[in-house]
Amino acid sequence: MNRNVDWEEPFCGAGANCFRLGTDVEGNAYIAIAGQEDHPLTDTREALTQLILGIKAGRADHLL
Predict the structure, then answer these.
(1) Got the DSSP string for the chain?
(2) How high is the pLDDT of residue 2?
(3) How far, in Å, CA of 20 to CA of 36, rounded?
(4) Please, which domain of life does this record's source organism belong to (predicted)?
(5) Could you give the percent of the chain with pLDDT greater than 70?
(6) What does the angle CA 28 – CA 59 – CA 34 come to, to the nearest 5 degrees?
(7) What's the burial of 40, exposed, middle or buried (CB within 10 Å: 0-12/13-18/19+)?
(8) 22 with 7: CB under 8 angstroms?
(9) pLDDT of 19-50, one tens digit each?
(10) What are the φ and ψ backbone dihedral angles of 9, each rounded to 5 degrees?
(11) 7 or 27, higher pLDDT
(12) b/e string for 5-36 if b means 16 or more Cβ within 10 A?
């Protein structure tokens, strides 16, 4: 699938855990491992916003 995604600069955590966020003109949001942008997870911008807010609120801490 050919997407025209505007990718942000990679965000890297500890070590080599880097990912990128992107959006397209249709209002979709994308998350991909840096270097693997051709295989992103995609959803709406609202869903991405809720995911990020949930992570910031500690709802994913049990996964760490």
Answers:
(1) -----EEPPPEE-STT-EEEEEE-TTSEEEEEETT-TTS-EEEEHHHHHHHHHHHHTTTTGGG-
(2) 53
(3) 9
(4) Bacteria
(5) 91
(6) 45
(7) buried
(8) yes
(9) 899 999 988 889 999 999 999 988 888 888 89
(10) -65, 150
(11) 7
(12) beeeeeeeeeeeeebbbbbeeeebbbbbeeee
Q: What is the pTM of this model?
A: 0.70
**Bridge partners, residue 6, by sequence:** 23
Whole-angstrom Cα distance, residue 61 to residue 52?
Answer: 13
Cβ neighbours of 37 (radius 10 Å): 17
pLDDT for position 51: 85
Q: Give the tokens for residue 48.
A: 């991405």
d(CA 57, CA 45): 18
